[in-house]
């Protein structure tokens, strides 16, 4: 039930993020809502204030892939970039949602991660966007029959965070 609800919500969010921007004739357009005056973006490895050492590297890789797949920008090194997206994973935790009444083992768990990030225009040194406490969560099932490892939960929360972070880099509507 929770998985179905999360899938429906993700679908609706995806539809909203496809792009509704004002066209040149004052109507609506499905064109890019990302600032096309910017051409390159640097994404250094996110900092990590949590005990999960893989989290920041996984998040950085997912953000780079998301930027390159849905934005007009090219990810490059800081010395050649117009802008830089930097951040820190500030919180990572597992939340027990339900457990088997006979064994006491976890049936469903939620992985939650929080990130602070800043997008800076390297030409001026001014921040374009700053977000603190940017959070996402993902559900996984460690018990039978799925027996999903915590890595599945980490992967899912990283994917959600990457999509949400890159979505915030859109121009104001």
Structure characteristics:
two-stranded antiparallel sheet, alpha/beta, elongated, 8 strands, six-stranded mixed sheet
Describe the structure.
The protein has 173 residues and is of the alpha/beta class. The protein has a single domain (34-168), classed as ABC-type transport auxiliary lipoprotein component (Rossmann fold, 3-Layer(aba) Sandwich), CATH 3.40.50.10610. Helices cover 29% and strands 34% of the residues. It contains three helices and eight strands, in the order αββββαββββα. The protein has helices at residues 2-17, 55-70, 150-168, and strands at 21-22, 28-29, 40-42, 47-48, 74-75, 83-99, 106-121, 127-140. Strands 3, 4, 5, 6, 7 and 8 form a six-stranded mixed β-sheet that branches. A two-stranded antiparallel sheet has the order 1-2. The longest helix has 19 residues, at 150-168. The two termini are 34 Å apart.
In terms of topology, how is this protein built?
Blueprint lengths: L1 H16 L3 E2 L5 E2 L10 E3 L4 E2 L6 H16 L3 E2 L7 E17 L6 E16 L5 E14 L9 H19 L5
Parallel strand pairs: 3-5, 3-6, 4-6
Antiparallel strand pairs: 1-2, 6-7, 7-8
Helix pairs in contact: 2-3
Distance between the termini: 34 Å
CATH-derived architecture? 3-Layer(aba) Sandwich
Question: How many E strands?
Answer: 8
Taking the sheet with the most strands, its summary is: 6 strands, mixed
Mean pLDDT: 83
Uncertain regions spanning at least 5 consecutive residues: 14-27
- Report the helical percentage: 25-40%
The CATH fourth-level homologous superfamily: ABC-type transport auxiliary lipoprotein component
Number of helices: 3
């Amino acid at each position: 039930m929770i998985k179905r609800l999360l899938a429906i919500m993700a679908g609706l969010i995806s539809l909203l993020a496809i792009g509704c921007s004002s066209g040149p004739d004052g109507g609506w357009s499905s064109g890019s809502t990302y600032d096309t005056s910017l051409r390159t973006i640097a994404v250094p490895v996110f900092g990590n204030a949590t005990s999960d050492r893989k989290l920041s590297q996984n998040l950085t890789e997912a953000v780079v892939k998301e930027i390159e797949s849905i934005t007009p920008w090219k990810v490059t090194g800081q010395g050649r970039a117009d802008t830089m997206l930097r951040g820190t994973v500030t919180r990572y935790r597992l939340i027990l949602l339900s457990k088997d009444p006979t064994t006491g083992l976890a049936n469903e768990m939620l992985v939650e991660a929080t990130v602070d990030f800043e997008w800076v225009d390297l030409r001026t040194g001014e921040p374009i966007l700053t977000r603190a406490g940017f959070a996402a969560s993902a559900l996984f099932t460690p018990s039978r029959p799925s027996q999903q490892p915590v890595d599945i939960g980490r992967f899912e929360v990283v994917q959600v965070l990457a999509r949400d972070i890159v979505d915030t880099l859109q121009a104001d509507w």
